[in-house]
Design brief:
mainly alpha; 180 residues; 0% strand; Clp_R_N; elongated; Double Clp-N motif
Length: 180
């Protein structure tokens, strides 16, 4: 399938890997595909999403919130029920040593090596192929990947788009029209 990817679609998957690493994730999910699109304003997918008002930083914040990575919010919520995270950290570090609650350092190899696609991200790429075939295109471009992301609907990427107030059906129609 990757042999059908255009230069922009290949750059999109590379940018998705970079987004995954930037967020400290060990996988490439639908959210990373979306974030990558937003870093590529000269592509059909990036241009369309940005034109509809979805920005990269807002999408990153939505990904963090929806995936449970918003640690400040967690600390605030725990504080409301009487749990002091600083006190918990101090006790754990006293028992297990400094940094016991920190993420283990990733090796240089894992930081530079292959980052696997999640099942949903693979599904998005498969749906991108189906979209290309349905449109009678012999290539898969970034616009087809956006169509796959919209069609998949349940992944974090589509949830971020929907939460931002964008109409998925209207977005889909617009991308198909631009693809011809």
């Amino acid at each position: 399938m990757f042999e059908r990817f255009t230069k922009q679609a290949r750059q999109l998957t590379t940018a998705a890997q970079a987004e995954s690493r930037r967020l400290g994730h060990g996988h490439i999910g639908t959210e990373h595909l979306l974030l990558a699109m937003l870093t590529m304003p000269d592509t059909l997918a990036g241009r369309t999403l940005i034109r509809h008002g979805l920005g990269h930083e807002a999408a990153v914040e939505a990904v963090r919130r929806l995936s449970g990575q918003d640690r400040d919010l967690d600390a605030e919520l725990l504080s409301e029920i009487g749990i002091d995270l600083n006190a918990v950290r101090e006790k754990v570090e006293a028992a297990f040593g400094p940094g016991a609650l920190d993420r283990p350092a990733r090796s240089r190899r894992s930081a530079l090596g292959h980052v696997p696609f999640t099942g949903r991200a693979k599904k998005v790429l498969e749906l991108a192929l189906r979209e290309a075939i349905a449109l009678k295109h012999n290539h898969i471009g970034d616009g087809h990947v956006l169509l796959g992301l919209i069609r998949e609907r349940d992944g974090l990427g589509a949830r971020v788009i929907a939460e931002s107030g964008l109409d998925l059906a209207a977005l889909r129609r617009e991308v198909i029209e631009e693809l011809g």
